[in-house]
Amino acid sequence: MFSFFRKKPAATPAPAPSTTGGSLIGSALVQPMEIPVPAPVAPERQSWMERLSAGLRKTGSSISQVFTGAVIDETLYEELETALLMADTGVAATQFLLDEVRRKVQQTGATRPVQAKNILVDALTKLLLPLQKELVIGEHQPTVIMVAGVNGAGKTTSIGKLTKHLADDGETVLLAAADTFRAAAREQLAVWADRNKVEIVSQEGGDPAAVSFDAVTAGKARGKDVVIVDTAGRLPTQLHLMEELRKIKRVVTKAEPSGPHEVLLVIDGNTGQNALSQVKTFDDALKLTGLVVTKLDGTAKGGVLAAIAQEKPVPVYFIGVGEKLEDLETFNAREFALALLQ
């Protein structure tokens, strides 16, 4: 199975400086240039690409239709602008992509629409690349992950899937059921804990911050690798609930001064520009370190990731295209661009 996580390697001493002059290739003085070599696509990843492409087909076909003509002209650019905006790419990202395509078409002398489409794939990859980042487990013990999101975004389900993949990677996980306002959330998280054979800290009607504190304290005492805190779903307009999220974060820091090490926001890919608004609001309140984008399974427009990359580039750790465990995967900019513009 494709591994979601990379443990930070132990530090190794740098080679001693040369006394004979010249540069030390591979030493602390001069690092060799890394030339990426495409790795063979594993069957699991190929299967994921097929599911992602299927999920983004509605958006992709609308954009690809722009490139079915015979020439690259102003009509093509106007239709592309409309298609990108309809895909929830946003004004700023749409302008960036159009400018990149125009510039590259002129620079290369491209004349066929299929060439312009390939240029757009490269431009979208370039735009999305800052969002591509691995979730690192092992730099802290435990790694404390706080997860937020509005009701219905798939927050608790995403935590369950994340827990499963962590457990499969050999990590010991403890869950904190700090969504104490919704009994169903605690029950749902308890099911995932039982299914994955991990421990859970839960209190019926308890204070969310107290549950979070107890869980982090327990995780440290029991030597757990990861503690995941599931917070109550809320709208960013509910100011008193957003303040509670800040309180949870402060209390987690009291239990573990270096934590929380990750603050993730789960967003529904179907909500378009509203998802970008959520990212901005939750980041202002919590200083997000990463995103999980769910429900890219046929109805989502997908372009919102370009808007996020242009206006609020918070890393996207995972994207999901369905309810199954294998429907949550790591985000790869090139893969997403190819799937969106299939």
From TrEMBL:
It is found in: Cell membrane; Cytoplasm. GO terms for biological process: SRP-dependent cotranslational protein targeting to membrane. It catalyses: GTP + H2O = GDP + phosphate + H(+). It is a peripheral membrane protein. Its main location: membrane. One of its GO terms (molecular function) is signal recognition particle binding. InterPro entries: AAA+_ATPase, P-loop_NTPase, Signal_recog_particl_SRP54_hlx, SR_rcpt_FtsY, SRP/SRP_N, SRP54_GTPase_dom, SRP54_N_sf. GTP binds at residues 149-156, 230-234, 294-297. Its EC number is 3.6.5.4. Keywords: Cell membrane, Cytoplasm, GTP-binding, Hydrolase, Membrane, Nucleotide-binding, Receptor. Residues 1-25 are annotated as: Disordered. Residues 10-22 have a biased composition (Low complexity). The keyword Membrane applies. Residues 315-328 form the SRP54-type proteins GTP-binding domain. GO terms for cellular component: cytoplasm; plasma membrane. Gene3D superfamilies: P-loop containing nucleotide triphosphate hydrolases, Signal recognition particle SRP54, nucleotide-binding domain. The keyword Membrane applies. It is an enzyme of class 3 (hydrolase). HAMAP family: FtsY. Part of the signal recognition particle protein translocation system, which is composed of SRP and FtsY. SRP is a ribonucleoprotein composed of Ffh and a 4.5S RNA molecule. Involved in targeting and insertion of nascent membrane proteins into the cytoplasmic membrane. Acts as a receptor for the complex formed by the signal recognition particle (SRP) and the ribosome-nascent chain (RNC). Interaction with SRP-RNC leads to the transfer of the RNC complex to the Sec translocase for insertion into the membrane, the hydrolysis of GTP by both Ffh and FtsY, and the dissociation of the SRP-FtsY complex into the individual components. Belongs to the GTP-binding SRP family. FtsY subfamily. This is Signal recognition particle receptor FtsY. It comes from Ramlibacter albus. The lineage of its organism: Bacteria, Pseudomonadati, Pseudomonadota, Betaproteobacteria, Burkholderiales. The gene is ftsY.
